[in-house]
Amino acid sequence: MSRSTSSRSGVLRHRDFRYLLIDRFLAPSAFAFSMVGVSFAVLAATHSTADLSYVLAAQIAPNLVFAPVGGVIADRIKPQYLIAAVNLTIAVCEGVLGLLVLTHSAQLWQMIVLEAGTGTAVAMFYPASTALLPRLVPDAELQQANAISRLVMNGATMGGAAVGGFVVAAAGPGWALVADALGMLCAVPPNLLIRAAATARAQTPGVLRELREGWQEFRAHTWLWAIVAQYSVIMMVWYGSFSVLGPAVAAAHLGGPAAWGSIMAAESVGFIVGGVVSLRYSPKRPMLFVTAIGAAIAIPPLALAMLWPVWLICVASLGVGIVIEAMMVQWNVAMARYIPAEKLARVAAYDALGTVMSMPLGALLAGPIATAVGVSATQYGAVAVILAATGVTLVSRDIRTRRYADAPVPAANSEVVTEGALTVSAISSEA
Fold first, then answer.
1. Of 10, 225, 253, 323, which sits 20 to 30 A from 235 (CA to CA)?
2. Cα separation of 427 and 411, whole Å?
């Protein structure tokens, strides 16, 4: 392939990366249907924000166990195979729930069990996904690949959330969940066609030792564990105040599932715009940037607490989506550049675990607290906690001063290895 051809086609010239993009279109667009469908299925069946808390907590709780396990598995086998299994599991769980809803036989315990199954699969997705992408492209194209990948994912989520909201409003949440299942099934084959090899390892230690090695690498980086701790607090209060209480606010004051789908779609548009920005924008101090963006997550619960008009909440969600997406691209690039490739899935698992381990608590507390003090008061409290967590994290000098120029480029990222062909790409270590 000539240099001019490579320049024109960019990161899309990599065959396996193109298959990855197919998965990252199909799976998020399908799963977005359940993001709307599950909440309104529970509310329609139980009319209780507390019951919705239990179901959404069941969806998040498996991260406490299965995110680290997923990291170990993804460092041992081909991560694309684990992602295919994730897609299949979600299809089964959401499809069964959809059929139960359509037949008016869904009970609370069934919803909790099935969403726990979905949550188990999702818990294993993040470490596998984080480990897979750097194996498909050279390090010099890592930021472009992350940005394009997330652009596709967020565009799919935007479309899925918007269509899903209208499907729920017009036909009911059961059909949205069945559509989710069909879409996730279609996302299985592209992963099986990816030829990225498993990480070559001289020996495979026991699971506990691998978990220990990942933990040691995780806690060796102050910027890493401090930011994960910050977002653990932020995601706890955001999940309770926005994901749990948001649908209840939409149902009571904003017009129901169509309005909620529009809010989620607006956020996804912001993610797309943020992805475009991230194709070129790279902050000089990435950790400072990532930390400061945490404060923006206070805006959505604030908008709901103040009962802004739907169009204004959509505008706010759009803006927040832009900055959050730019932050996520920088975070993924930083992880890939600072963490050795052979430990990346395990460290990513601890990142996922730390970030979401408090979300079940947020989900469980949101409903009862809102019942006791009111929905708006609960959301105002969430805003205060988010701002406080961001302020405390910014005290760290390592976070305020660290630059990409300080990052070592992991040796494993200097080549792209695929089964059937070995492609060695000469790259620059320039950050």
1. 253
2. 11
Which residue in 336, 318, 224, 220 sits closest to 271, CA to CA? 318
Closest CA to 352 of 71, 50, 8: 71
> Do 357 and 63 meet the contact criterion of CB atoms below 8 Å apart?
yes
CB 169 within 8 A of CB 38: no
| pLDDT higher than threshold 50 for residue 420 | no
Contacts of 322 (CB under 8 A, 6+ apart): 270, 271, 273, 274, 277
Model pLDDT for residues 178-232, shown as the tens digit of each residue: 999 999 999 999 999 998 766 555 556 666 777 788 888 888 888 888 999 999 9
Token digits of residue 206: 């026991």
Average pLDDT over residues 309-328: 90
Does the pTM surpass 0.90? The reply is no
Summarize pLDDT for 50-67 with one digit per residue, the tens: 788 788 778 877 877 777
Provide the H-helix boundaries in 193-244: 207-219, 222-238
Burial code (b: 16+ CB inside 10 Å, e: under 16) for 226-247 equals: bbbbbbbbbbbbbbbbbbbbbb
Give pairs for 88-91: CB < 8 Å, separation 24+. Answer: 88/184, 88/185, 88/188, 89/117, 89/118, 89/120, 89/121, 90/31, 90/118, 90/121, 90/122, 90/180, 90/181, 90/184, 91/180, 91/181, 91/182, 91/184, 91/185, 91/188
- Above 50 in pLDDT, residue 99? yes
- Using an 8 Å Cβ cutoff, are 303 and 109 in contact? no
